Model the fold of this input.
Amino acid sequence: MHTDPIDIAIVGGGMNGASLALALSQAGLSTALIEAVSLQSEQRPSYDDRAIALALGSVRILQRLGIWTELAPLAEPIHRIHVSDRGHFGIARLDSAAQRVPFLGQVALARDIGAALNRRLSQAPNLRLLCPARLRGFTQEADQVRLRIDQQGQQLGLGAKLLVAADGADSPIRRQLDIPTRHWRYGQHALVANLTPGRPHQGQAFERFTDSGPLALLPMPGNRCGLVWTCWDAQRDELLGLDDAAFLARLQQRFGQRLGRLHSLGQRAAYPLRLMQVRQHYRQRVVLLGNAAHALHPIAGQGFNLGLRDCAVLAEILSSGRSQGIDPGSPTLLDRYARQRDTDQQATGLFTDLLARLFTSPLPPLKLGRNLGLLALDLLPPLKQALARRAMGFR
Ligand SMILES: Cc1cc2nc3c(=O)[nH]c(=O)nc-3n(C[C@H](O)[C@H](O)[C@H](O)COP(=O)(O)OP(=O)(O)OC[C@H]3O[C@@H](n4cnc5c(N)ncnc54)[C@H](O)[C@@H]3O)c2cc1C
Done:
């Protein structure tokens, strides 16, 4: 049986795919979201207990998507950011009052962001949720993309004018299309866990540079903190294998006493770190989104913030195309998207890569340079303003 193709099929219901699905449903485009892991599952890798720093610009996008009201009570505002280099003199501080904004950002658990997105998705108009269901293959034709989907053993066919690949950093769709990427591994892992500090965090986020890489503590509700600790690959198993007391003692030694005694450690998880950026954003009715298009070092908490800006622009272009009767998979619209998003994606990738390399390097000239840089940042308001704007998600 042949039915008319829908406007857009999104593969991947992680934070980026789910956000785009909501935005497109609001714009009245007929959309299907295909996600392999059940929305009800407690074990969705995209929605674990990692703390996500949301820039002010991202909070505004989530407000427009209608999920911020539900998420706000579960999030903690960041009022100050404190950047330091372990054992050296450079320190920089960013302050929401000095920047004349209500907060520099907000921190929420990926799990809570997922729950809020999923509740909205299940009520969204114009949206067909295929979940759990897995894309098995697709064929690009002149007027549509034909998808082959496995929904719990049942084989489905679906036609869409545009296929959005939001299927993660290892994107099977990107691989099938053989889209070239720029990529490398940092030889590091990010260890993530939540804990309680001995003193109130007072909405302060800490970024501390150590000889194995950056270590961040993000403020969370209930005076909890989200830890992101970068370590070399060779240190990963040892750090994961320590008991809680030994792990906290090692962490305390790295972080210092600014927040008092660290305790009540939650579950630990580790993620390999890499940089990946696509060299081409779309190909014949298929566009890449979120981690499928760019995977970044989490040093500056930019990955999802960048993906959300991509979602907002793609939804706006497709929505205005709809009102002009333009095919959502047409090269005119996809080219407009690629041109509008390329600069931000390149600049954000470069910014995080530079930070990751500069602040991990043990070379004495670079160590001295970064300490002078931190000092300059603290003393020069325009420089500080520029960094604060980037941290808040404004370009
Ligand atoms: C330690 C750490 C800390 C971070 N901190 C921050 C932060 O503070 N701020 C920030 O902005 N970002 C942060 N990030 C980045 C952020 O987590 C990612 O950018 C974001 O989660 C990527 O979401 P995504 O939807 O693009 O991809 P994913 O979450 O990988 O989702 C891909 C989805 O596609 C589905 N899928 C794949 N193949 C198929 C298929 N064939 N059929 C159906 N479904 C399929 C998968 O099941 C999955 O649900 C951090 C990342 C890490 C690792």
